[in-house]
Amino acid sequence: MTRETLDRRIRHLLDEILLLDSMVEQSISASVVALKSRDMEAARRVYAGDQQINSRRFALENETMVVLATQQPIMAHDLRLLASILEITGELERIGDYGKGIAKIALILGDQPPVKPLIDIPRMAAIGVEMLHKAISAFVSGDADAARAIPVMDDQVDQLYNDVYHELVQIMIQDPRTIDRANYLMWAAHNLERMADRVTNICERTIYLVTGELKEVQPTDDEFLARHP
Amino acid sequence: MNHPASTVTTIARPQTHTLESAEQYAIEARNLSIYYGDFRAVKDVNLQIQKQKITAIIGPSGCGKSTMLRSFNRMNELVPTAWAEGEVLYHGQNLYAPDVDPVEVRRRIGMVFQKPNPFPKSIYENIAWGARINGFKGNMDDLVEESLRDAALWDEVHDKLDQSGLSLSGGQQQRLCIARAISIKPDIILMDEPASALDPIATLKIEELMRELVQNYTIIVVTHNMQQAARVSDFTAFFTMDEDRAGYLKEFGPTEQIFTNPKDKVTEDYITGRFG
């Protein structure tokens, strides 16, 4: 082994990715629990904790730049790995922002009367977190097959989002006094739907890392375009 | 102006080179200028070398990198017209003081050269010879093995120690020279372009070896290969030339900072290949 320094630094970057991921997963899970259980204190913790995610992301990004500049991994797998790390840190940070956004909604809704029992939104969060966990594991272990299998789960999230959307629209039509609160819940669900999309982006990076091929895992939905000419 | 002197003094020796010392720096240049006759090759350098770190000296050709490196163990004196102004402090003592023995200086501050230069003797003798003339009284076999192991060469040569050092490949010869340098337990190892005559794989092996050695030694390396400086060093000193062709220290800092965010535009132009 002649590039132990580079390999050691890459291992550290991957450890940092895992750490950042666990913080982001925690943010999403805790924010939805806070929203469901109307736990203001927990929501405040998630909201404030986003700062730590952001600073960890900057530190990781900076460390990656230092490895690029000093170790010059400018070929093949090494280059794709470092470029992918930069991309994925950004995706993780944005997913963390979704957790913060849901915590903010929990704080805004406070102890106002609930619009509906929250069942599908926690389900969306659970699937999203599972997708994220698997996606980061696939990236760190360089498993393209695992990465290809994950975006399929996005369909479940999209389905749940549609269900939540239609249910909330119905509630708003029936009782316009709920519009404000229901709209906030719609945003919470939307955040989770976007989260799953970003997990798909992470899976694309793993496939790129392993195969060198950059392409969308979930191509544009032609059926949708046909329905909206 | 300081000239080599006839009287000799003992340089204070640290208890061990692996222990933290009260002194912050392994060696330090203060207002150091080096001349070859009337020509000032290096001017007014103030440079503090951190202990058990690798400091790289980089810069364009003719900026005085090697002259600066050789000033740390008074190697420049082997050039008859060379002389120095200012101080090089090692354990609080000016190495250019009139009563300091340059041979003793070079024992504490070893050197590895650009072109591997093993003695035309066996691999074993390449290590043993230097130790013997330095008065080593311990088990020579153990010393040879330890030095070769520390230089990451033992596994490749342990069954042919009686073969000539010159029979080895270039990269192995250079590691043999490193083994020879560390066999006399110096504090500081100076390396002048130690990998420039080697192929890329042998180069990377030397670089990894340097990272190993720095756990026990202070290393100062001159390299014209900026990427190598970036890969291997903890601190980087960038030298450039003035209008009078005298080299001087333009920027010094942690390698990560020099290569990602240099403070000086000239440094940035050099490391990005826009000048030099």
The biggest sheet of chain B, with number of strands, parallel, antiparallel or mixed sense and barrel status, is: 6 strands, mixed
Question: Could you name the CATH topology of the domain at 25-114 and 187-271 in chain B?
Answer: Rossmann fold
User: What's the pLDDT, averaged over the residues of chain B?
Assistant: 90
Largest interface: A-B, 12 and 14 residues
H/E topology pattern of chain A: HHHHHHHH
Low-confidence stretches of chain B: 1-10, 12-22
Instruction: Characterize the largest beta sheet of chain A: strand count, sense, and whether it forms a barrel.
Output: none
Please give the radius of gyration of chain A in angstroms: 19 Å
Strand order of the largest sheet of chain B: 6-7-8-3-9-10
Overall, the morphology of chain B is: globular
Tell me what the CATH architecture of chain A is. Answer: Up-down Bundle
> How many helical elements of chain A?
8
Could you estimate the helical fraction of the residues of chain A in percent?
Answer: over 70%
Kindly list the characteristics that best describe this protein.
heterodimer, A: 229 residues, mainly alpha, Methane Monooxygenase Hydroxylase, Chain G, domain 1, 8 helices, B: 276 residues, alpha/beta, Rossmann fold, 6-stranded mixed sheet, 4-stranded antiparallel sheet, 10 helices, globular, disordered N terminus
Structural account:
The complex is a heterodimer of chains A (229) and B (276). With 229 residues, chain A is mainly α. Chain A has a single domain, classed as Phosphate transport system protein phou homolog 2, domain 2 (Methane Monooxygenase Hydroxylase, Chain G, domain 1, Up-down Bundle). Helix content of chain A is 82%, strand content 0%. Chain A has helices spanning 4-37, 40-71, 76-109, 120-141, 144-149, 154-174, 179-211, 222-227. The longest helix of chain A is centred in the first third of the chain and has 34 residues, at 4-37. Chain B has a domain at 25-114 and 187-271: 3-Layer(aba) Sandwich (Rossmann fold), CATH 3.40.50. Helix content of chain B is 32%, strand content 25%. In chain B, strand 4 (82-90) and strand 5 (93-94) form a beta hairpin. The longest helix of chain B has 14 residues, at 170-183. The two termini of chain B are 32 Å apart. Mean pLDDT of chain B is 90; it is low at 1-10 and 12-22. The interface between A and B is medium-sized, with 12 and 14 residues.
